[in-house]
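=== RUN LOG ===
request id: a7f3
mode: sequence -> structure
chains: 1
length: 238
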Amino acid sequence: MAVERALLLLADIVGYTKFMRFHRINLAHSQDVTGRLLESMVDAVPTLKLVEIEGDAVFLYAPDDGGSASEDLLKFTLAMHQAFHARQQWMVARNMCSCEACKKVGTLRVKFVGHLGEVATQTIKNRTKLVGIDVIAAHRMLKNTVAVREYVLMSESVYEHCDATLRKRSVSIDQELEGVGPTTSHYVDLDAVALDPLPLEEPTSPERLRETAGVILRCFPRVTGIRRFRAPDRAATS
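=== RESULT ===
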């Protein structure tokens, strides 16, 4: 397998876990919501390559031999953060469903992890994945002690190449990554650097009805058991 140096970027939606356990409707609607939010973030960074959708997270990467992609980490995360909240507020304004998942859409938050390391590609039954210790390290970084609601957490390798704005605003933390060892990471509170919200139009009554009906119809096969719920794919962390 060919090995290349790459920027690994994970965006993880936070806030749905407890609601997904209570009822089939909540689980189906939460998966619909998170899927659309993840899609909006992927669309916001077309220069990054999508590796995988992992439950309520998205895994992206870009080849980065000279550190140029890491220099753009701030641009990538701010574009994704803005897209996430624009789609979130769009749904909040239009979805009239009263299930717990839909009522909590406005409380969801997103966190980002960036790591620069060596990866290889592995193809099994026409499915290509990134593998390597640095893939594992990036996923392990999602479990951390950062106390702020929304942030971008960088490994030391990304920090050395990232935008000066990120370095100036970053806070360093030491953590033990399972299976990797002790590391120093750096995080930035996204509230301090976020882009202005995108303007949103006031929804009409037909738009609200259309959005609500769309959620119900898309989720109907899972709610009734016609279609199985998808299990989060966290294989890269094992």
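=== NOTES ===
The mean pLDDT is 89.
DSSP finds eight helices and eight strands in the chain.
=== END ===
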